[in-house]
Design goal:
Blueprint: H1 7-28, H2 35-48, E1 52-56, H3 59-69, E2 77-80, H4 87-94, E3 98-101, E4 124-128, H5 139-148, E5 152-156, E6 164-165, E7 168-169, E8 176-180, E9 194-198, H6 201-211, E10 215-217, E11 220-221, H7 232-266, E12 269-270, E13 284-287, H8 291-300, H9 329-337, E14 338-341, H10 349-363
Parallel strand pairs: 2-3, 2-4, 4-5, 5-8
Antiparallel strand pairs: 1-9, 6-7, 8-9, 10-11, 12-13, 13-14
Helix pairs in contact: 1-7, 2-7, 3-4, 3-6, 7-10, 8-10
Length: 365
């Protein structure tokens, strides 16, 4: 079976550095807020091009802390897409605010900026676009719209870290950017982890305090917070992976381009990448009819697949009341048709050819 994400090959390439960095942590014993935390934050901020990077316990925690730092809570609304992983809306509900859904674009699967203005109300405090599958959303247009209305923008960049957008990096396109270091992400650790990015010093200060139980200094708590720190060991792992990250991004782009060219020639629908942007292909996703049959045929050909995501948030039992009475036809159609294929920097040309041939055969193209 072809690996869906080949973390083992990546580990084998980085084994010595990963072990050396983990051993350093084991030697100094500072498992919480050790020196690797500051080292990683410095490297991440420089990579993205912002003043501050704040490591946190997960991508979900990053979004939650960002909302808390902005003071968003009961009575407020946050606009986002229903076609995303549940964490995006989950954190909005957790702070007591209301998720307001805006449908996706059919070709990029990202939020449709042309539909956002109609959903802005006096209660809107933030817009949280998701950079789905590895490509940044229409952030310039979204930020311009939000700025004119006094609304904050938080980029949910859990799948797009490393992507470029009009000369800037994902997580440097709005007031706050949040990403995830879940193992399967373009830059992943060996557990949960995440980071928040901003160039606003007051927000950075607030978010650093919130991630450590709201304390300004030890046992002096200036605000409500959470236990949201990223473990030193996980920071060490990401530091090791950063040494190979630029190469991996180039490989992902090359592999993604190769998929897209082959599928375009065969008439298989792929995710469009807008001009001035790159995708890091956090997921390489196509759209197919009769998905269950296609999946079964690919399984028989020993090609693994996944669905990101099979049910939009307004159709989830816990979130259905937020989109009650509204239609999100593009998100619903995407949820019926999307299919993710093997993607990682170490995917060989031979294995990729097998995937391409199997997809073309399974879709009858």
């Amino acid at each position: 079976m072809i690996p869906f994400i080949d973390l083992k090959a990546q580990y084998n390439a980085l084994r010595e550095d990963v072990h050396a960095r983990i051993d350093e942590v084991l030697e100094h014993g500072q498992y919480i807020m050790g020196p690797e935390v500051v080292q990683l934050e410095t490297r991440l901020a420089a990579y993205v091009g912002v003043a501050d990077a704040i490591t946190v316990a997960s991508g979900t925690e990053a979004l939650l802390i960002a909302l808390m730092a902005l003071g968003i809570g009961p009575g407020d609304e946050v606009i986002t897409s229903p076609f995303t992983f549940v964490a995006t809306a989950e954190v909005i509900a957790l702070v007591g605010a209301t998720p307001v859904f805006v449908d996706a674009e059919a070709d990029t699967c990202n939020i449709d900026v042309s539909l956002i203005a109609a959903k802005v109300s006096p209660r809107t405090k933030a817009i949280m676009p998701v950079s789905l599958y590895g490509q940044v959303a229409d952030m310039d247009e979204i930020v311009a719209l939000a700025t004119a209305r006094g609304v904050a923008v938080i980029e949910d960049a859990a799948q797009s870290f490393g992507a470029d957008y009009n000369g800037r990096k994902s997580c440097n396109t709005s007031l706050i950017g949040c990403t995830s270091f879940f193992p399967s992400k373009p830059l992943g650790c060996y557990g949960d982890g995440g980071a928040i990015f901003t160039s606003d010093p007051e927000l950075a200060k607030a978010m650093r305090e919130i991630r450590t139980h709201g304390q300004e200094r030890r046992y002096y708590h200036t605000r409500i917070g959470v236990g949201g720190r990223m473990d030193t060991l996980q920071c060490a792992v990401v530091l090791a992976k950063l040494e190979r990250f630029d190469w991996e991004i180039e490989q992902r782009r090359r592999i993604g381009d190769r998929y897209s060219q082959a599928f375009a020639a065969a008439g298989v629908q792929t995710v469009a990448v807008r001009q001035g942007r790159t995708s890091v292909w956090g997921q390489y996703t196509i759209q197919v009819d009769d998905r269950s049959n296609v999946q079964e045929r690919l399984r028989a050909a020993e090609v693994p697949t996944a669905i990101h995501y099979p049910r939009p948030l307004h159709r989830q039992p816990a979130y259905a009341h937020y989109g009650a009475g509204e239609a999100f036809p593009v998100s619903e159609r995407l949820a019926e048709r999307v299919l993710s294929l093997p993607m990682s920097a170490d995917l060989s040309a031979v294995d990729q050819d097998r995937v391409i041939a199997a997809v073309i055969a399974a879709t009858g193209k």
